[in-house]
Write the structure tokens for this entry.
Amino acid sequence: MNPLRERQWRSIIAFDKRAAKSFIRINDRIRAREIRVIDENGEQMGILAPFEALKIARERGLDLVEVSPNAVPPVCRIQDYGRFLYEKDKSDRAARKKQKVIIVKEVKFSVTVDEHDYQTKKNQAVKFLNGGDKVKASLRFRGRQMAHRDLGYNIINRLIQDIGEVGVVEFMPRMEGTILHAILAPSKKAEPPKPKLVAPAQPVAATPVAQ
């Protein structure tokens, strides 16, 4: 096989792999009996048989891409498929960058927690919430401590009260086995008040000066 022909076959194979990966039907893979066709300039070309639309696309050195498979009939567009994938990947990456990833960070207490340790862990929880993360406040009962679960509830409820407006309770304190826990989420910060519109001062009429 000559080098040019080999490069062409490699390009076709890579092209097909990208198409399979994205689950988008293109060219000969479009199975509908008829399709609504849009050309590369966004103009409607009407309803055609796929082989007719594909012939037009190939004459223009482009591809036939199924962009709306659930429409009746399916909508296909004549375009450069490689460019289509590039633009789609670019927009997907931009959308992912805008997504806020919320992490749940755990702050652990014990029934016998002293005041200094409590304040340290409370400050940790406030820091996590201010950073946009959720907080799981947990307390494990050991042995005979299970007979004094009210002490554990007092600690977690105190934390909720001390957090104040920094966080909101997503899950109230509840027992799971020997662990009492609650989930706190960052509270939505209130929007800053809009500045009040100040009416322009009325010009002061000049007082005539006596001659």
